[in-house]
Amino acid sequence: MGDHLPVDTVEQAKQNREYAAALADLLFQLADDDFILAYRGSEWLGLAPHIEEDVAFSSMAQDMMGHAVMYYEMLEALGLGRADDIAQLREPSAMRNAILVERKNGSGEYSEDPHYDWAYAIVRSYVYGLHKQVRLEALQQSSFAPLAQVSRKMMTEHRYHLMHWQVWLKQLANSTPEARRRLEAAIGKVWQDAGELSDLGPNADAIVRSGLIAGEELLRQKWLDLVKEVFQTAGLSWPGEPGKAPERGRAGEHTAELAQALATLSEVYRIDPAASW
Amino acid sequence: MAQEMTERQDSLEAACWELLQEVKDPEIPVISMVEMGMIHKVTVKAGIARVEVLPTFVGCPALEIMKKNIGEKLTEKEGIDDVEVLFVYDPPWTSDRIQIDARGKLRSFGIAPPPLGIKPGDPWEVACPYCDSPYTQMENLFGPAACRSILYCRHCKNPFEALKPI
Fold first, then answer.
1. Quick check: A49 contacting B, CB < 8 Å?
2. Nearest CA among B4, B146, B75 for reference residue A156
């Protein structure tokens, strides 16, 4: 991490152009990751394996959405538009989330014949969640003080999400042969995209130089160590080096699945963006 | 003159704290936001009360209701013309901020208070708020609100909720 002096307020951040740009880049990544995965989580409502899980998954999606709001509000404070607009009116090419979080939950549509993949939901959430843990820990040292403060707060909430996914992973790993088979298939699928999580985008150097977060290699190594430990404890074999999708989400390249998600989630908002909620 | 103004401000701030005792947590009506340890700071200047609130959970949907309730309550006081509610994250709210007296109130409402002084990774053991038995089981880490979990007492057979230690 760079040895940038602490920046206590948005006003201070705005005085240095390179710093403000790097901060915005990072905030978009943080916000979009949480926002899109929260949306995918919300698509499980009514479809989770049992009613308690409906409550749990919705609750975690709500927390994640809340975290995204914090980042979007910081972007608003930086002068990049209204938080609601930033979240809901951007084109897919302006989104900076990793490809992993935009993938559909399975075949079919939410409102029509959904054949969602629960094992994929658990593995994706958990693998992403472990990366989020590493990221939040790194953000606690961020040169941007408001980011360091909220990351500390988010961490206390995020810990409960990790506990929940841990329980599911163990249960799927030690349940029927079918559960085990599906779990391993889900790990394979998540692993094809997971390598992008620690990507800090085209402006990675400026982000790290500004002392906003630790470098990609350190984030990646810490995350891999955590996943290794978790897989080992659950008796799962190591899937090897994580891959990356052909599209680079951090650079604004996305799949059609994101465009569809954005169209659905912003449908009501687009009808009347000036309405008060 | 200056001294008089400061005294007047101090008394207005004290009155605000008093009134905030009447603003209950929208989801736990037996306990006030002051008792929850959610009110960080109150300042009054030129008739404007500025209240700094520490959210328990970042994405809590009750925050807007709290904001509205605080605004309505404080403008009841003569001398307070406007109220500004700010959500702040430094210091972060932790469950240790819940006042000691309030912990008993939570229990009487059927909610187990969070253990004090818990550190990340510490085990969370929950005694039943009705019969105090430690023979309880976690039904769902996530309850009707982000800050609560659902448990079941194997001793007195009551389901109950517990505030998550954070």
1. no
2. B146
Q: Show residues of chain A in contact with B146, CB under 8 Å.
A: 59, 62-63, 157
State both tokens at A201: 């985008």
Residue A40 lies in a domain: yes
User: Count of CB atoms within 10 A of residue A170's CB?
Assistant: 14
What are the residues facing A259 on neighbouring strands? none
Give me the CATH number covering residue A152: 1.20.1260.10
Structure tokens, B112 = 């187990």
How far apart CA A241 and CA A30 sit, in angstroms, is 23
Residue at A211 is within a domain:
yes
Distance from CA of B7 to the nearest CA of A (A): 32
Chain B contact set for A62 (CB, 8 A)? 59, 61, 146
CA distance B149 to A33: 26
> What type of residue is B22?
E
Instruction: Give a yes or no: residue A56 inside a domain.
Output: yes
* A64 shares contact with chain B (CB less than 8 Å): yes
Q: What domain count does chain A have?
A: 1
End-to-end CA, chain A: 40
What token pair was written down for A84? 């609601």
A66 contact B CB<8A: yes
Compute CA B113 distance to the chain's CA centroid, rounded to the nearest angstrom: 12
> Is A3 domain-assigned?
no
Point out which residues pair with B48 in neighbouring strands: B45, B82
**pLDDT, one tens digit for every residue, chain B (166 residues):** 567 777 777 889 999 999 999 999 988 889 999 999 999 999 999 999 999 999 999 888 889 999 999 999 999 999 999 999 999 999 999 999 999 999 999 999 999 999 998 887 788 999 999 999 999 999 999 998 889 999 999 999 999 999 999 9
Domain range spanning residue A260? 10-239+248-271
Angstrom distance (rounded) from CA A231 to CA A86: 37
pTM of structure: 0.94
